Amino acid sequence: MRIITGLYKGRRFDIPRSFKARPTTDFAKENIFNVLAGHIDLEGKQALDLFSGTGSITLELLSRGCDRVVSVEIDRDHHAFIKQCLAKIGAVNCLPLRADALRFVKSCRQKFDFIFADPPYALGELAAIPGMVFASGILSEGGVFVLEHGAKNDFSSDAHFIERREYGSVNFSIFKG
């Protein structure tokens, strides 16, 4: 796993082979962040990484200048790995939480300028995630929400939807608050 650009550009982290989650590919991650540059400047922003998995997006957000990142991952081993990565780069502006991402969305009272969610593609509630995010009020006005998902999902009819990007088998839907 590699950080693409910013303060920690080029830093690599070896993911244990036993992990179920895999990071968003470098190709897909680099491309989606290039697209996002036209929608939001991450410098100084508050960000939320839901279903953090290996922490790849969390680390990228920190490297790109977010003031604070909340990283939510339910798996004990993945959460511990994220904490190890944060310690290696000396990041103190990240709150790694071991929690259920959907429950977090429903109970959170903080607002975020940017939210990224990479749920398991087979998650039964995946199609409901944009509605949950917007109903909860956790996305700041004008904020950007990105949902990574499989090819079969289509969010183009959502009122907040702005575009979809596909990079191989990785699909991103982008929403604006």
From TrEMBL:
Alphabetical keyword list: Methyltransferase, Transferase
Single GO BP term: rRNA methylation
Domain of life assignment: Bacteria
Pfam families: Cons_hypoth95
Gene Ontology molecular function: any one: methyltransferase activity
Keyword Transferase included in the entry's annotation: yes
CDD domains, per the entry: AdoMet_MTases
PANTHER family: METHYLTRANSFERASE (PTHR43542)
The name this protein goes by in its record: RsmD family RNA methyltransferase
